[in-house]
Automatic annotation (TrEMBL):
Any Pfam family matching the protein: LRR_At1g61320_AtMIF1
Protein name from the UniProt record: At1g61320/AtMIF1 LRR domain-containing protein
Species this protein is from: Cuscuta campestris
Gene3D superfamilies found in the cross-reference section: Ribonuclease Inhibitor
Alphabetized InterPro entries for the sequence: At1g61320/At1g61330-like, F-box-like_dom_sf, F-box_AtFBL13-like, LRR_At1g61320_AtMIF1, LRR_dom_sf
Domain At1g61320/AtMIF1 LRR, residue spans: 41-308
Superkingdom of the organism of origin: Eukaryota
Length: 353
């Protein structure tokens, strides 16, 4: 014991290796750890004291507000597969000076409305079968939003006023298994598309049939004047099921074809398209971006799709490679356009391996 006391290792600073882990890894470990050991280990890590995960529990009315008012140092809150009341409120007069920075809500039943008063909130993720009503009472620092909705026209919801009280929003990721036509086209007709003045990064993960007119997206893009990055992930609808039927019903060949409009996107620097099939509509939209984004520096065309893993992480989804004919057609059209006067533009085309 005397030797241990005199050991130089005792004078070394104690490092908190647990706190160096990312939020998603911390939450995953916590969800698999018995309560007794989680509490014991949290003593060793300052970060764990600021992360809370609620999974598969019943949230009684008012209970969440009580928890938040008692955990003012909470930075990351995950709520998944819980039975929740009609309305969830984060922050406000009853919760004191909430320091919440990251809020993730996944597949909870019963929620109709989410109200947020969190001055330090930076990221918000929400996944569900249908959209709920969001009320942003005070979220001045919210910079990144990810929304995944199974069965509704998510573009119409977001560009219809969702971002009205989010002055700092810079990154928006939208994931839907439904087409974006019916309600979106109504917004286009009445001119009701909200302008996202500060948005710099837009990621759209959308169901696309061969008849989906992607050029209709130009009206949304022109309402993002500072957009620097556009990422479009195309996914085919499931062969069976109601979602597929809804997509077919809402998709069509109507809308602009690109010949009569060309809105300039001067700040767009990077565009990527994943899950690319090489359909006429995909090619038309890609060529539209090449023509309209005069400052474009890089375009990436990828046959593989992408799937969101949570906490800002994506993984590639393998697909059957293009035929040699399709691959050659994509190269000929895009690279031929690239040679017409965009010397600094890099076009990368990746077939599935």
């Amino acid at each position: 014991m005397e030797i241990m006391k005199n050991s130089p290792f005792n004078d070394a600073p104690k490092e908190d290796f647990i706190s160096q882990l990312s939020d998603d890894i911390l939450a995953s470990i916590l969800s698999r750890t018995p309560t007794k050991f989680a509490i014991t280990t949290s003593v060793l890590s300052k970060r764990w004291k600021k992360t809370l995960e609620l999974r598969g529990v019943k949230i009684l009315p008012g209970s969440l507000e009580s928890v938040l008012s008692a955990c003012l140092s909470l930075r990351t809150l995950f709520i998944g597969k819980c039975e929740a009341p009609f309305k969830l409120c984060f922050g406000g007069p009853t919760s004191g000076d909430l320091k919440l920075e990251n809020l993730i809500i996944e597949n909870c039943c019963g929620i109709e409305e989410i109200e947020i008063y969190a001055k330090d909130l930076i990221t918000l993720e929400f996944q569900d079968n249908r959209m709920v009503r969001f009320v942003f009472g005070h979220a001045p620092r919210l910079q990144s939003v990810y929304l995944s909705i199974e069965s509704e026209d998510i573009l119409a919801y977001v560009f219809g006023g969702f971002t009205k009280n989010l002055p700092s929003l810079e990154s928006l990721s939208l994931d839907s298994k439904c087409s974006f036509y019916e309600e979106s086209r109504r917004l286009m007709r009445i001119g009701g598309i909200e302008k996202l003045k500060n948005l710099k990064r837009l990621e759209l993960n959308l169901v696309c049939t061969p008849n989906t007119d992607l050029l209709a997206l130009h009206l949304f893009l022109q309402n993002c004047p500072l957009l620097q990055e556009l990422h479009l992930v195309s996914k085919s609808p499931p062969i069976n099921g109601l979602i597929f039927k809804a997509c077919l019903a809402r998709s069509g060949d109507g809308g602009a074809k690109g010949a009569g409009f060309l809105h300039c996107h001067p700040n767009l620097k990077k565009a990527s398209f994943s899950g690319f099939e090489g359909t006429e509509n995909e090619m038309n939209f890609s060529l539209y971006i090449l023509r309209s984004a005069v400052g474009l520096e890089e375009m990436v065309i990828n046959r593989c799709g992408k799937h969101y893993m949570g906490y800002g992480r994506w993984k590639n989804v393998s697909k059957k490679p293009w035929s040699e004919e399709t691959h050659q057609m994509i190269q000929n059209q895009l690279l031929a356009h690239n040679n017409v006067g965009y010397g600094s533009l890099q076009v990368h085309i990746h077939n599935a391996s």
